[in-house]
Design brief:
The structure holds two protein chains of two kinds.
Chain A lengths: L1 H44 L5 H6 L3 E2 L4 E2 L2 H32 L2 H16 L2 H19 L8 H25 L3 H9 L4 H12 L1 H17 L2 H6 L18 H8 L5 H34 L1
Helix pairs in contact in A: 1-12, 3-4, 3-6, 3-9, 4-6, 5-6, 6-9, 7-8, 9-12, 11-12
Chain B lengths: L2 H34 L5 H5 L5 E8 L9 H6 L8 E10 L4 E10 L2 E11 L23 E5 L2 E2 L5 H10 L3 E8 L5 H32 L4 H15 L2 H15 L6 H26 L2 H9 L4 H30 L2 H6 L17 H10 L4 H29 L1 H4 L1
Antiparallel strand pairs in B: 1-7, 2-3, 3-4, 4-5, 5-6, 5-7
Helix pairs in contact in B: 1-13, 5-8, 5-10, 6-8, 7-8, 8-10, 9-10, 10-13, 12-13
The chains are: A mainly alpha, B alpha+beta.
Protein name (chain B): Phosphate transport system permease protein PstA
Pfam families (chain B): BPD_transp_1
Main location (chain B): membrane
């Protein structure tokens, strides 16, 4: 009796231990949120910098105590939007090719290539951008430098390809065969079937891929930092203007910032965090909707 | 337009898109290999990034030149990465080596240097020791700076050769090991991988065991899953901010190996939890039931039956994690720093390969060097990719029958 009881107690203790391990994920999310928000909201609560100036300012000059991130928000949104505009169609069509048109061997090879593309660290995309894209942009640009919104968009468009391709491809492959057969039976061609039946059926999966792509684009730091120019002021008005996305602002100056300057970099992180949370919630909702249907 | 024409047009667009995707991949990998391959060699992998000054003690001898003048000239006396040949080479018998004058380009400054261009097989330089008596290697393209206290600063190549020839007995030579290598970055990356896995692997595996084997659906499990998903969606710069605020400042770990690896460990958690969960789910229910029916406790079942079956899946998780650490940059930039050195303790900074690639591209504008580091990274990524393919194939055995 005693032995069984002891065994049982041991089992309960270890179950508790496993639970704690699993709970570390929750604790981490909470800790990240608390630490970033705590540090980021400090300057506004202690009134060392007005939040309105922070959110609407278009100049970031730590030397003269000007910290406005509005132009960064605009830059981030433009870059992400542009990347989605270019990257998503290419990615979805590639996914269509892999799952619908390519033979199984060719499809496998392309899938491997896409996975490899996903595995390349973002810094190397940046190096590629700096070595190839920026010089080409410079050739057609009226500006004196190639680092620009356009270069950022192109690099980000490449970077979201693997995410969107692989998720779209999975959800296209998951569309039941009967849908296609039904469509063929009605006399539709293969292409019509793909665009009128398969893609609409895979819509929510593709949307999830796109939103994850947005998340990747808006959160990308290192690749962007090498090709965006990082100006200290100015809302971008043309594709050839330099931009300074929220992420690079943090990464560029965190190393040496202190005082209010440092706290406002955390505030930049808070703004970024809020964007990301909105995106995460959207994904969550989409995934749930998919399960529901 | 007819239906067939329209269809083939659309098909053409699809082919075009796929072509773009593939050519982008090819051009990225191709660009990095073409730009960087010239710099990748053994020295690149085994040298430090920073120059190192060494005092070498050498017993002078008389070693005649064993090759003819022509082939001596053809020996590349300089490290092609940074240097152009100015004069030489001249063979000096008492150190059994040839010296040459090169213009050595170090980041932004350019100066003339005397380098060793060729070393005879039985040259006394091969038996060089440092002040503590430890054997050291002196290789070709090491820079010579002084001998027995005579500085070569403003001397011409001939004068230097004469100065060396005039010396005898034990020579004290000041040489500089050229930098530009990535040894310290490779080692830092290894440390980072090991440390972060030591922390994240047990947490992730036990967490996944809880989720698949114990947890009953409910609010708690939902919270844990939601948290893991959130972690997976947070960009690495935010992890970097957190690591900076928590590990670097609040815990006072400074910008260091430990701050970096703990931050990365959090990034790895969702990766490990997810792949371990997938692996545990593939283990058939019948295995567990069989074990329980034999009188094993739940714990015994997990450790003796379920986990061994899930080993390939866990191996996949480890490989994915290594890939993540190798590729991580933004978070490490803020928590582990950009110092190219081998971290002596857990609390000293060091830059991984990826951070170093960023650093040389951004701060030094040296794209070739960044690409050379990129080659090393891509090779690692490809190897990991292939290995994880093998391990995940192994996992499917239960379902194949």
């Amino acid at each position: 009796m005693q032995a069984i009881k002891r065994k049982k107690r041991k089992e309960t203790i270890i179950e508790g231990f496993f639970l704690i391990c699993a709970f570390v994920a929750v604790i981490s999310v909470l800790a990240i949120t608390v630490f970033v928000f705590f540090n980021g909201l400090k300057p506004f609560i202690s009134n060392s910098y007005p939040i309105w100036d922070f959110l609407t300012g278009v100049e970031w000059r730590p030397g003269s105590n000007m910290y406005g991130i509005f132009y960064m928000i605009v830059g981030s949104i433009y870059a992400t939007f542009g990347a989605i505009l270019i990257g998503v169609p290419v990615a979805i069509l590639t996914a269509v090719y892999i799952s619908e048109l390519a033979g199984s061997r060719l499809g496998k090879m392309i899938r491997f290539a896409v996975e490899l593309l996903a595995g390349i660290p973002s810094v190397l995309y940046g190096v590629f951008g700096l070595g190839i894209i920026v010089p080409y942009v410079l050739k057609i640009s009226p500006m004196a430098q190639g680092e620009s919104l356009l270069a950022t968009i192109l690099v980000l468009a490449i970077m979201i390809l693997p995410t969107v391709v692989s998720i779209s491809e999975t959800s296209i492959s998951a569309v039941p065969k009967e849908y296609r057969e039904g469509s063929y039976a009605l006399g539709a061609s293969k292409i019509q079937t793909i665009f009128k039946v398969v893609l609409p059926a895979a819509r929510s999966g593709i949307m999830t891929g796109v939103i994850l792509g947005i998340g990747r684009a808006i959160g990308e730091t290192m690749a962007v930092m090498l090709v965006c120019g990082n100006p200290i002021a100015g809302i971008p008005t043309s594709l050839f203007d330099q931009i300074r996305p929220l992420t690079t602002n943090i990464a560029l100056e965190m190393g040496y910032a202190s005082g209010v300057h440092q706290e406002l970099l955390y505030s930049t992180g808070v703004v970024l965090f809020i964007f990301i949370m909105i995106i995460n919630l959207a994904v969550n909702k989409l995934v749930k909707a998919k399960v529901g249907s | 337009m007819g239906r067939t024409a329209k269809d083939s047009l659309v098909k053409g667009i699809i082919y075009l898109a796929t072509g773009i995707t593939l050519s982008v991949l090819l051009s990225i990998v191709g660009f990095i290999f073409v730009k960087g391959i010239g710099l990748v060699n053994w020295d690149f992998l085994t040298r430090d990034y920073n120059e190192k000054v060494v005092y070498a003690f050498v017993e002078s001898g008389e070693v005649p030149l064993s090759i003819d003048e022509e082939s001596l000239k053809s020996k590349q006396p300089y490290d092609q990465r940074y240097e152009t040949l100015q004069e030489g080479p001249i063979y000096v018998e008492n150190i059994g080596a040839a010296i040459a004058s090169v213009s050595y380009k170090n980041h932004s400054t350019e100066r003339e240097q005397i380098v060793i261009s060729y070393i005879e097989k039985d040259s006394p330089l091969n038996g060089a020791i440092d002040s503590t008596g430890k054997a050291i290697t002196i290789g070709t393209d090491y820079i010579l700076q002084s001998i027995n206290g005579t500085d070569f600063g403003d001397m011409t190549l001939e004068e230097v050769a004469e100065t060396i020839t005039a010396e005898s007995g034990e020579l004290k030579i000041k040489v500089v090991q050229p930098g530009g290598g990535i040894k310290s970055n490779i080692i830092t990356t290894l440390y980072m991988v090991l440390l972060s896995l030591i922390v994240a692997l047990p947490l992730g595996i036990f967490g996944a065991i809880y989720l698949t084997e114990y947890a009953k659906p409910g609010r708690l499990v939902n919270a844990i899953r939601f948290a893991a998903e959130c972690l997976a969606g947070i960009p690495s710069i935010i992890f970097g901010l957190f690591g900076m605020a928590f590990f670097v400042v609040a815990m006072n770990f400074q910008i260091s190996l430990i701050s970096g690896s703990l931050t990365v460990a959090i990034i790895l958690l969702p990766v490990i939890i997810r792949s371990t969960e997938e692996a545990l789910k593939t283990v058939p229910m019948a295995f567990r039931e069989g074990s329980l029916a034999l009188g094993a406790t739940k714990l015994q079942t997990i450790f003796k039956v379920v986990l061994p079956c899930a080993v390939p899946g866990i191996a996949t998780a480890v490989l994915l994690s290594i890939g993540r650490v190798v590729g991580e940059s933004a978070a490490l930039l803020l928590t582990a720093g950009t110092v190219a050195q081998i971290p002596g303790t857990l609390f000293s900074p060091g830059s991984t390969l990826t951070v170093q690639a960023y650093y040389v591209a951004k701060e030094e504008g040296n794209i070739e060097l960044a690409c050379a580091i990129g080659i090393v990274i891509i090779v690692i990524v490809i190897v990991l990719n292939i290995l994880s393919r093998i391990t995940s194939d192994k996992l499917d055995v239960f379902n194949k029958k």
